[in-house]
Specification:
alpha+beta; Heat Shock Protein 90; eight-stranded antiparallel sheet; two-stranded antiparallel sheet; 2 domains; 28% helix
């Protein structure tokens, strides 16, 4: 796995994104098409923007790994654990799975669809989306997008996307997986 360090400064997003994209295109020459390229950029920009919002002055590590045509993009930091406000409660880590009515939690919803989390264990949440058939989106909907909208963007751009919190060390890891196809 190749690691890149993000200094959590706004002006670092673009140069680091370009550097990582260059590295990915080098290791996956024949399997990064235009669709994958767009998805990779979207995921990187959202992960780095998330770091700006939540990390402050500490650094964030971005990991890139390619295994069997699957590209793994991970973001790791020691910030506060992901806070999820559901209609029932604010979820804290480790998750108390016995207090959840089911293994799936609705995290965010709008006129586009719903971002949900599937609890894998008390420190691991797998994201997925359920999309709605949208014909028209009002300005009020766009203006009302909340904090978890970036997670929805990453979940939609990924073939798999999850979050793990490691108690004791305080390490948070978001991992996006994109299945690359031979051209």
């Amino acid at each position: 796995m190749k690691k890149f360090v993000f200094n959590n400064e706004t002006e670092g997003i673009y140069p680091l994104t370009v550097q990582i994209i260059g590295y990915i295109k080098n290791i996956a020459k024949d399997i990064v098409d235009d669709d994958a390229d767009f998805r990779i950029k979207t995921i990187l920009i959202e992960l780095l923007t998330n770091s700006l919002k939540h990390m402050g002055t500490d650094v964030t590590n971005i990991g890139i790994d390619l295994k069997s045509n699957k590209l793994y993009i991970s973001k790791q930091d020691k910030g506060k654990p992901l806070q999820i406000n559901t209609r029932q409660a604010i979820l804290t880590w480790p998750l108390l799975t016995n207090k959840l009515a089911q293994n799936e939690i609705a995290i965010y919803g709008d006129d586009f669809g719903t971002l949900k989390g599937r609890v894998k264990n008390s420190n691991h949440l797998e994201f997925f989306t359920e999309d709605f058939d949208v014909q028209y989106v009002s300005k009020e909907t766009v203006m009302g997008l909340n904090e978890h909208y970036g997670l929805m963007i990453i979940a939609r751009a990924s073939d798999a996307f999850d979050y793990k919190h490691k108690p004791g060390t305080g390490i948070n890891t978001f991992t996006s997986v994109i299945e690359l196809k031979q051209r």
